[in-house]
Specification:
Elements (H helix, E strand, L loop, with lengths): L1 H34 L9 E2 L2 E2 L13 E6 L6 E3 L5 E4 L6 E2 L10 E6 L2 E6 L6 E3 L2 E2 L4 E2 L6 E3 L2 E6 L1
Parallel strand pairs: 5-6
Antiparallel strand pairs: 1-2, 3-4, 3-13, 5-7, 7-8, 8-11, 9-10, 9-12, 12-13
Amino acid sequence: MPALILQLTRIGFLVLLCLFVLAAIRVIRTDLRYAGEPRTDGGRRRGGQAAVAQVPQGRLQPSTLVVTAGSLAGTRLRLGPGPILIGRAEDSTLVLDDDYASSRHARLTQQGQEYYLEDLGSTNGTYLDRVRVTTPTPVPVGVPIRIGRTVIELRP
């Protein structure tokens, strides 16, 4: 009987090991799927390059920050004179419920008539229209900002 118990224990550990490896592969696949740059063109590419979002050239003044994708989709924030902190921290202006967002992820600030996006040293980065933000960058109206699985836009 002890040999049978030992053999069943070995098989049980082997099954658990296989389940662990499959779970790890699933997490890696999910991470790789969302690690790519956000796509706003329905997954199509033009001429082998990423399609650039078309934004009207008129001077539209943003007045609202809108969450277009993620767990807070549909949320709207009225823009004001102060900075907008984005992250998981409870004292952020826009508190994200996103495992891929840092507690202090990014900041939107108004300088003159434009808003600038700044990454605050986040782990997974902040993307403005598929380009990683490394320095304070002006944000045009309607261009998507991706923070983890959350996508936000400035709207007039």
